[in-house]
């Protein structure tokens, strides 16, 4: 796997460190007074301080469900996705947009999914597949 890099805006670096580090379990990498890197399942996520950051609008639609655009996240194998879903569901401080569910059930590309917001309002989607060959199935 080749990791990708995503730079995204956050309103507060301390609350971002807590959310990505403690809530999602990301290792924290390099940082400065204006940004911090996280390892999100092997991908480099760079949170950049932008106090005026605003939440993504919920104006997209997938399988009849409204989803925020833009959003980002990770594609996981089902066991890893289930561990994350269980970890998040055990907390009472998660800003849920869509609780864990299965989308496209019985169809090619069947996937588990969940949507949450970080403290800055960034929307994250985590998908779970039984096999990575299903990611682009149609």
UniProtKB/TrEMBL annotation:
Name this protein carries in UniProt: VOC domain-containing protein
Top-rank lineage group of the source organism: Bacteria
Pfam families: Glyoxalase
Organism ancestry: Bacteria, Pseudomonadati, Pseudomonadota, Alphaproteobacteria, Hyphomicrobiales
Record-annotated VOC domain positions: 2-129
């Amino acid at each position: 796997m080749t990791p990708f890099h995503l730079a995204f805006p956050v309103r507060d670096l301390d609350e971002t460190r807590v959310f990505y580090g403690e809530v999602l379990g990301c290792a924290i990498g390099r940082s400065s007074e204006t940004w911090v890197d996280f390892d999100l399942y092997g991908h480099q996520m760079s949170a950049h301080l932008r106090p005026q950051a605003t939440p993504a609008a919920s104006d997209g639609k997938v399988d009849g469900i409204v989803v925020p655009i833009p959003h980002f996240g990770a594609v996981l194998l089902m066991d890893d996705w289930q561990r994350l879903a269980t970890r998040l569901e055990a907390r009472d401080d998660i800003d849920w947009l869509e609780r864990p569910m299965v989308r496209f059930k019985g169809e090619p590309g069947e996937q588990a999914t969940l949507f949450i917001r970080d403290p800055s309002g960034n929307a994250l989607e985590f998908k779970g597949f039984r096999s990575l060959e299903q990611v682009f199935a149609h």
